[in-house]
Amino acid sequence: MLVFVTTPSSPARAADDTEMPKAKTDYKPQVEDQDRPKDKSLLEKTPADAAVASKAQSGEEPAFYQRWQFWAITGGIVVGAVAAIWGGAVLYHTIRGGDVRPCNTAFLTCAGQGEPR
User: Fold this and answer.
1) What is d(CA 73, CA 71) in angstroms, rounded to the nearest whole number?
2) For the segment 41-65, what is each residue's pLDDT rounded down to a tens digit?
3) Fewer beta carbons below 10 Å: N end or C end of the chain?
4) Does the pLDDT value for residue 97 go beyond 70?
5) Contact (CB, 8 A) for 79 and 87
6) DSSP for residue 16
7) How far is Cα 1 from Cα 78, in angstroms, rounded to an integer?
8) pLDDT tens readout for residues 55-94
9) Contact present, 105 and 115 (Cβ < 8 Å)
10) How far is CA 4 from CA 1, 8, 14, in A?
11) Coil, helix or strand for 112?
């Protein structure tokens, strides 16, 4: 096993509860943004921004039946219901015995449907 021992004079030690953290007063940004235009008129809002903002503030939302999510969910429910009804009818018919099939003449004996054994 490897044991790490730190001494109290280490610069990486945590501050005691009684010590105040040292404040850094010489703040400088790391990099200046050269792409940002200096001309304030380029940063002003355009009429299109005002139109978008007014539409957002008006609170007009399309009706629920005009959204694609509504039609996707409705279509899924309809397809699921049709599949459940059709599948249930087929399953019920099969459980009850299904359709009567004609006698297969490939076999030598054909019993049932009035045929002799």
Assistant:
1) 5
2) 776 767 777 777 777 777 677 788 8
3) N
4) yes
5) no
6) P
7) 67
8) 777 767 778 889 999 999 999 999 999 999 999 999 999 9
9) no
10) 10, 13, 16
11) strand
Q: How far apart are CA 70 and CA 73, in angstroms?
A: 5
Residue 87 token pair:
């599948």
> What is the C-alpha to C-alpha distance for residues 44 and 73, in angstroms, rounded to an integer?
43
> What is the pLDDT, as a whole number, of residue 24?
65
Characterise 98 by phi-psi region: left (phi > 0), alpha (psi -120 to 50), beta (else): left
For 5, 18, 27, 33, the CA distances from 30, given in Å and listed in that order, are 35, 32, 9, 10
Is residue 13 within 8 A of residue 6, CB to CB? The reply is yes
Which conformational region is residue 112 in: left (phi greater than 0), alpha (psi within -120 to 50 degrees), or beta? left
> What's phi and psi for 12, nearest 5 deg?
-90, 5
